[in-house]
Automatic annotation (TrEMBL):
The entry's keywords: Hydrolase
Gene3D superfamilies, A to Z: Glycosidases, Oligo-1,6-glucosidase, Domain 2
One of the record's GO molecular function terms: hydrolase activity
Protein origin, superkingdom: Bacteria
Residue stretches making up the Glycosyl hydrolase family 13 catalytic domain: 14-388
Entry-linked InterPro entries: GH, GH13_cat_dom, O16G_dom_2
Naturally occurring in which organism (per UniProt): Sphaerisporangium dianthi
Protein family (similarity comment): Belongs to the glycosyl hydrolase 13 family.
Protein name: Alpha-amylase family glycosyl hydrolase
Amino acid sequence: MNNSPWWRDAVVYEIYVRSFADASGDGVGDLQGIRSRLPYLAELGVDAIWLTPFQPSPMADGGYDVADYRGVDPLFGTLADFDELVADAHAHGLRLIVDVVPNHSSSAHPWFQAALASPPGSPERDRYVFRDGDAPPNNWTSVFSGPAWSRLPDGQWYLHLFAPEQPDFNWRNPAVHEEFQDVLRFWLDRGVDGFRIDVAMGLYKDADLPDVPPAEEGFQSRSPIWSQPEVHEVYREWRKVLDSYASDRAAVGEVWTDSAEDLALYVRPDELHQSFNFAWLEAPWSATAFRKIIDDTLAAVTAPTWVLSNHDVVRHITRYGEGSLDPGAGLARGRAALLAMLALPGSAYLYQGEELGLPEVKDLPPESRQDPIFERSKGELLGRDGCRVPMPWSGPAQPYGFSSGDTPPWLPQPASWAALTAERQAADPASTLSFYRRALDLRRSLRATLPGAIAWLDSPEDTLMFTRGELICATNCGEGPVPLPPHREVLLSSGDPGDTSLAPDTTVWLRSA
């Protein structure tokens, strides 16, 4: 029997709250909408759900600009709705993880409003990063492009590594530590099972605020902006809070690093339980790339995670299909990558809609877009809205069962999604949804008996083949069929299973001979 903590090998389903299900009829997803779809999630076979921010927010960055860390935005419901959601999720056998955003608040947060109303050098301003000067304190740029500093009428500058409406906290102030420990306890007392920590490698900045050398711009482990040594003490404090609760509570960090070794620093026994493995998410469709990431991760990280898509990146179905002349290559590779991922030790994180094979929506009209990351590249408007289009549940036309009312969804859904609704796919045993259900059910039945390590098999070029106990996983990233390894039976294939060979863009699970 598997006695490991639930989070160590869980399948976690990310819900982008605004886009999952709308019970109020206003065109925006909400907590009661999620509650109405819990049976679907339980039948899908996931172990936990992760909610993106639902707290009060001006929505300058889709809720990642939090104005009140202890409430629910009226757009999404009430605290009573949240309590009902927690209770119902647990009744369906689902754990519930919520986002916490500690690097920055909304500029509408009472603390920042108090800072604006107070003079330079005041205790109110010390809760954020303010500096004097005739010019910006350094050359730092925002992740959303442009300067990372904005100037107030009184001449001081404040730091915002994201939008100007998202001022960075000063984590060198003990009051910030106390505030967030209290925030964690507030939600833990309401029954949540854990937290996903936004920008977890942020929080502390080099105290001298030096310029970033050009070669170190971006999410670099040794940048003066990211992964400062002091950040680890925060997670040691948080781990004590989590461990003080009776049942297993867990925290997973959004940590961008340069290597698996750097990532491992965040998941030491007294810090975070897990951290996202973005190297896997960013990998191309390549057996060589996959194998290196698997080897590096399993060698360095004791509680690995695997993820293919999330609310910040182009959906993997679309990414994998780019450059292929076969219009079905992206979906075939996406299904194959899912099966390979589920065979690996650790936890898997799914993003809503990937179980329907949803592609990125690239033709959203500019006037409908709401993502603050708008950049023009070769005449194309880019941003994250394309992966955030509301879920298609049922019916032949928009809103496809997403909303109970007549108000159009907050982002328009394409006509092509009529063939991809959950209702339609549930009735088709060959659909991507049916495949996900079979894969998750089979993984659940096997995971208690599978060891926490893999062993590579000799395999043809452009393929991955490994064993994990009696399970053999074989993935063909090449252009032609390859022989299957010796086996007793085929358990599941992402495509048409062959008797003796494995087709391109396909993964198969076999039981060893």
